Give the backbone structure.
Amino acid sequence: MIGHLLGLVRYRGLIQALVARDLKARYRGSVLGFFWSFVNPLLLLLIYSFVFTVVMPGKYPADMEPYALFMFCGILPWTWFSSSLSEASNVLISGGNLIKKVLFPAEVLPIVTVLANMVHFFLGLPILAAFLIYYQRPLDPIELLWFPFIVFVQLVLLMGLSLLVSALTVHFRDIKDILSNLLTLWFFATPIIYPMSQAPESMRWALNINPMTHLAISYQEVLFYVGPHGHWKWLMAVFAASVGIFLVGYFVFDRLRDSFAEEV
């Protein structure tokens, strides 16, 4: 396991090439091409703004206004999270021709899925930044220094989960369908469309064991709320847990890798 893990550094060129191929293939044949990476989050934010200001206007706490922007700060990282896991559940099966090649490192495929979706996450940030400026939401430069670390924590968590999900789905195809329903529940169990303070006291323990809860709150604190924040302790705990999940995910992947070629 350690040898394969250290070998990932040697495959960085292959990973970069496959990420570029994935991004090109996603918009191949479309008129706007990569421009969709900016248009999609822009349309999403405009739709949320229309729905929650015109169709379903409501009263939200002053620190959550504008509500659509508050929600968008959580939707962007959630889209990276859910898309990566959904695609990772099928990536080894769809990449069967590559896996059957003796020297091809299979773990590269779920990692490429996570990194390609991370690029889309980054391409959505300029849209978020433009609306933060439009709504005159000031950003604290000191708090903003936490942003790269939050992204890194989510990256480690996603790599671990993607390795685990992709390896298990090869043997248990039902995981793909279970995961699609689980992600819907996971979304509502994450304080994205509501603040943590509005969650019932009896259910907060469940939200606290959800790593995406603390990642979403961390993004909201850095990108939306004004003033000093104190969620960094939870973030460090999620980082430690993410490292553990990555090691477990890679261990399971490494143990099952010899069976992939036969199963796909």
Summary: The chain has twelve helices and no strands. The first helix runs from residue 2 to 7.
